[in-house]
Design goal:
334 residues, 7-stranded parallel sheet, 12 strands, Rossmann fold, single chain, 13 helices, alpha/beta
Amino acid sequence: MPKPSRVFAHLRASQRAAFLPPDLEAQIAALTDDYEWQEMPGCSAEEFSAELHRRDPEVLVAGWSTPRLPDILPPSLRYVLYVSGSVKTIVSRGHLERGLVITNWGGSISRIVAEAAMMHILNALRATNHWTLRMHVEKGWNENPPPAGSLYGRKVGIYGFGFIARCLVKLLKPFGGEIMTYAPEIGDDILTENGAMRATSLDELFTTNSVIVNLAPLTDQTTDSVTLEHLRQLGPGDAVVSVGRGPVFNEAALLQVAQEGQVHFALDVFHEEPLPVDSPLRGLSNVMLTPHRAGPTDDRMRDAGEFAVDNLRAYANDEPLKAIVTPEIYDAST
């Protein structure tokens, strides 16, 4: 079996332990005769560039903590095995145009993000944030309960229909409600296979469903696409969940409807991250907030690690790679 000449991993120790525990790292080491890992906490882009050129690997294993690659790459570097999600912090479009191959975690964490979306749906419908504030902060009990509902038989609309949305559909099916999606780029065969109906517009998605889940990619077309008019279609006790990209919502419209207090929101992503300490969203009893944590839990980061090892094995065997980031995918990513 052919082997990459040199594999260099640049990950923080905590990320190394989470994504590539010893059994997975041993598999990486077995796929090359020259494997090294180094942590360079707080290193500058210039320091990283110098170290990368000194080592001159064929494969770079990288993650959230890896600095951006220099414009001029070391001569042997062919493949960046990125164990995380968006690659825009580490490579430029020019790198891809010049032939650098990069893969990310693809759909390996989709079921975990879908699990988080399901958690947010249930919490929003049951007004969990209201009761958390009432009992923990206000030391109250069951005074003036807000409208709340069950997920059983509920119509759910999903904006976007990528891997995460398809995993979410599987979690929703036992509740017996209709599932609709607005995703113009997705073919009818995929919707039929997953048991989802097509919405012909965002208007239809919001007028037909009482739970809306944002899983849309952030593009020029989706940015600010959810407007005040859309949100006005929802009534008391309805729920909006966002675990996709925050700027899909018009920020002023979302805040206005949230402050009115009738619709329940569960938000994991925002226009500005970290969420400003003085954000008007903070403290609203009908708005549950989490700090962009819908991704892999600590115990399931190894799913992305396993995906990365499988890709490195495919690379060593000259087999097709999964989750290659093309220039077009790069343009559509956040």
